[in-house]
Amino acid sequence: MLNSGYLLRAIAGLLLASFAITLTGCGKLVSGANLQATVKYKPSTTAGATTEAAATSDAGATAATSEGVGTVKGKVELVGAFTPLAPLHVKGADVKDAAVCSAVEVPDETILVKDGGLANVFIYLKKAPKVSAAAPEGNLIFDQKNCMFKPHAMTMRVGQVVKVLNSDAVAHNTHTYGKKTTPFNSIVSPNDAVGAPLVYKQAEQEPISVGCDIHPWMKAYHLPIDHPFVALSAEDGTFEIKDLPAGKHEFKVWHEAGGLLEKSLVVTVKPGDNELPIKVTPSQLGK
Description:
It contains three helices and 19 strands.
């Protein structure tokens, strides 16, 4: 007779074997290793990485913004002895249309110096930076009075209308001598307060001369330009160019008596005010 304990252990072993075979046959469980799922995770962007990337991006934007703009201001100083030029003609001189043209003394405006400063010097960027700059609104006035151009020197934007007036009681033939622009060559009637429209459709590399074919001593200079970064020195030689992007820029400096005084004046513009003194000798002006 079998021992009852042995018999119970035998039955339990058979039952366990049968249960294991059943599970294996169903393919649900082969080994304990297969209970662990294998999952491949794509690299996730952590909060720290996101913040760092954003900070880097923001820093770049901030850096670009913080570069800012600067104002270049200074004075064109004539260094050395200079004798003021004699007038083109004195009051009452025997010239064409004398009643108008020599009603007053006509000065020679080729070189004008006041308090050591040289007037009518053009200071402008050699090449415009890539920034948006709308052309100014309104017309400019270019007049003729006592057989002199008023003003003697001026700048204008490409496409801007310049009204050529005539405040004299005699006719003038205003004539521009551009290298790239189409010449303006027109009779301007006496006492014309309406004006003939002059529009430069192209920029010039350097200022161009303007004359009167009727009165040959009359002369002026225009610089049509395609950006706003230009200045004309005042009667005391001072000038100012606003809103220049911070960074390195090349300027040209031009005067009618000396031509191109500086072909490439390199200036590093910082945000805020930047001083730019320019010194010119009489020899540079042919004196």
